[in-house]
Amino acid sequence: MDITDFAGRSVFFDKTPERIVALGSGEVDIVYALGGEVVGRPDTDDSLLNEKAGSAAKVGSTHTVDLEKIAVLKPDVLLGNDPLNLKDVPLLESIGAKVVLTHANSVEDILNQIGLIGRLLGKEERAVELMGDIENGLAKSAKKPAGETRVLLVYGAPGTYLAALPNSLSGDILTKAGGVNVAGEFQAMQNFPQYAQLNTERVVQSNPDVILIMTHGSSEEVEKGFVREMEGSPAWNSLSAVREGRIHVLPAALFGTNPGTRVLDAIALLQELLEP
């Protein structure tokens, strides 16, 4: 079986992989939704993962791959990120791991992940079912009238705040939920083209109706830090979102990571938050 991954790499398997290591929580979710299981999973908060993956070994993440722990597990396949783990492929292959790289910068990417992983695991029928459920949900969402709610999507870590652009996964989810991304014209960062630096002047000019905050880490800490930053800048107090108290921290399980098969839950939540 030849698998062409999202990086355009052709990876050959002489049998269906059984021992699976996944470096991202979205891939973990998809594997379990297809009826499979992982022996290795990302070292992240358990709340971000399928609960069945709790007993799997922690092997780092897409940013910090733990080769020693992965080698001990002797995986048949490792599911990594394109492009983050492209540089790690030679080392991973040197310990006997076959590597399949994917990414999720849009809902369409998630559908393609499901299709690819379904084929890899010999679960094509289940993959078609899952993809059909998501596509039907998207069709129903599309029938709802698009709103004009202007939204600033902020990705936050303590001390660092970025605006998510329309070409990011969260930006695509926002579009499908009927919102307007005020950062659409912001200049993308060179190393992270799905995000832009949070420029106070540009934000004030765009005057969002709603501010949504995403984070991988402590949502409470990030929210407090963001509020402190706003309080320290009188310009923020002029924003409609601030005056009307429409600032929300999004659940990390749906927005701090790839939600996998739960992407419809993410869209439904945004539709609820965007209602006038």
From TrEMBL:
<protein>
    <submittedName>
        <fullName>Iron-hydroxamate ABC transporter substrate-binding protein</fullName>
    </submittedName>
</protein>
<comment type="similarity">
    <text>Belongs to the bacterial solute-binding protein 8 family.</text>
</comment>
<dbReference type="InterPro" id="IPR050902">
    <property type="entry name" value="ABC_Transporter_SBP"/>
</dbReference>
<dbReference type="GO" id="GO:0071281">
    <property type="term" value="P:cellular response to iron ion"/>
</dbReference>
<dbReference type="Pfam" id="PF01497">
    <property type="entry name" value="Peripla_BP_2"/>
</dbReference>
<feature type="domain" description="Fe/B12 periplasmic-binding">
    <location>
        <begin position="19"/>
        <end position="276"/>
    </location>
</feature>
<dbReference type="InterPro" id="IPR002491">
    <property type="entry name" value="ABC_transptr_periplasmic_BD"/>
</dbReference>
